[in-house]
Design a protein that fits this description.
Layout lengths: L2 H23 L5 H9 L6 E5 L4 H13 L3 E6 L2 H13 L3 E6 L5 H15 L4 E4 L14 H26 L6 E5 L13 H21 L5 E7 L5 H4 L3 H9 L9 H11 L11 E4 L9 H5 L2
Parallel strand pairs: 1-2, 1-4, 2-3, 4-5, 5-6, 6-7
Bound molecules: NADP nicotinamide-adenine-dinucleotide phosphate.
Length: 297
């Protein structure tokens, strides 16, 4: 998919939504309240975001709830962190709920899907985002480290989709967005062979899932974030972050809002004819052929 084309479409979508409904609202008063109530493109939709207590998932939840107007179920394993995030988004005017669950557990994800549908009246959007990225070089990697990575990143993706599916099938605008990565599908990094395999595996899953689910009108796409400043990435340390920022043509690491914006577009009505695609959101990090390409900028 052409990223500049998508960015343009996203810009038009967001701009159009704001301008269109603000002018609609000009006939009624109070204008500000009416405007914001009508402008939100995902008003009346409901979403599940896994890994939503912090980082990219929290950014997605904020985007869907506050910029989209969707009702969002926040999912992660740690209840108190979810509660904090839920309070923060609600304080900013969003409609959210939260539920502790492990994406690698079918029983947990079944509970999450059933409760979301019951609480919000259905499920329209699933962001299968929860993931882990501990580093271990191949020679010292154990089979159980490999299994844990696959259970969270790959099986967790499958279970999140599988358990939400009966509800997504009843939605008129069903969207699945997977969080993959540039690492694996496009690039490699020492210590992340298992991670890269899991993130590439998500794309293999997506391509067949998008064909199988097309008859229900469900789209399945993936965002491929570059290096995004999150609690998880901060743990890599300052040297790593500085090195990465220097390798990005746009000159900075990403923010969770950068990824939230991409998800907002893929979840929108306007993205209804896009399925089985990847959207790389990386500040151009994967573009330079060599360090010299950056030095010559
Ligand atoms: N940050 C980046 O630069 C970057 C780049 C490319 C792709 N990604 C991908 O983006 C996603 C989020 O990354 P992040 O940087 O935001 O990570 P993060 O800051 O470490 O946050 C991870 C989130 O996932 C939850 N989680 C982890 N394991 C889980 C499990 N088994 N079940 C349910 N929830 C689980 C965590 O909460 P609990 O621990 O409480 O469960 C937390 O909410 C991952 O899939 C990652 O691979 C990140």
């Amino acid at each position: 998919m052409n990223v500049s084309g998508l960015s343009h479409a996203l810009g038009l979508l967001l701009l159009g939504a704001q301008l269109g409904s603000c002018s609609d609202a000009a006939t009624s008063s109070p204008p500000e309240q009416t405007c914001s109530a009508k402008t939100l493109p995902l008003q009346g939709r409901s979403a599940i975001v896994t890994g939503a207590s912090k980082g990219i998932g929290k950014g997605m939840a904020r985007a869907l709830a506050l910029r989209g107007g969707a009702s969002v179920m926040l999912v992660a394993r740690t209840g108190f962190a979810l509660e904090e995030t839920a309070k923060e988004i609600e304080g900013d005017g969003g409609h959210v709920s939260f539920m502790a669950g492990d994406v690698s557990s079918e029983a947990d994800m079944q509970r999450v899907a059933n409760s979301t549908a019951e609480r919000f009246g259905g499920i329209d959007i699933l962001c299968a985002n929860a993931g882990m990225f501990p580093q271990t070089k191949l020679e010292s990697m154990t089979a159980s480290e490999w299994d844990e990575m696959m259970a969270t990143n790959l099986k967790g993706t499958f279970l999140s989709v599988k358990t939400a599916l009966p509800f997504l099938k009843s939605s008129e605008q069903a969207r699945i967005v997977l969080t993959s990565s540039i690492t694996g599908p496009i690039t490699g990094y020492p210590g992340w062979s298992h991670y890269g395999a899991s993130k590439s595996g998500q794309l293999g899953f997506m391509r067949t899932a998008s064909i199988e689910l097309a008859k229900h009108g469900i789209t399945v796409n993936a965002v491929l974030p570059g290096n995004v400043l999150t609690e998880g990435l901060s743990a890599m340390g300052d040297d790593y972050l500085k090195g990465v920022a220097a390798s990005i043509p746009l000159g900075r690491v990403g923010t969770v809002d950068d990824i939230g914006s991409a998800v907002l577009f893929l979840a929108s009505k306007e993205a209804g004819w896009i399925t089985g695609q990847t959207l790389t959101v990386d500040g151009g990090q994967t573009l330079p052929e060599s360090p010299e390409a950056l030095a010559e900028m």
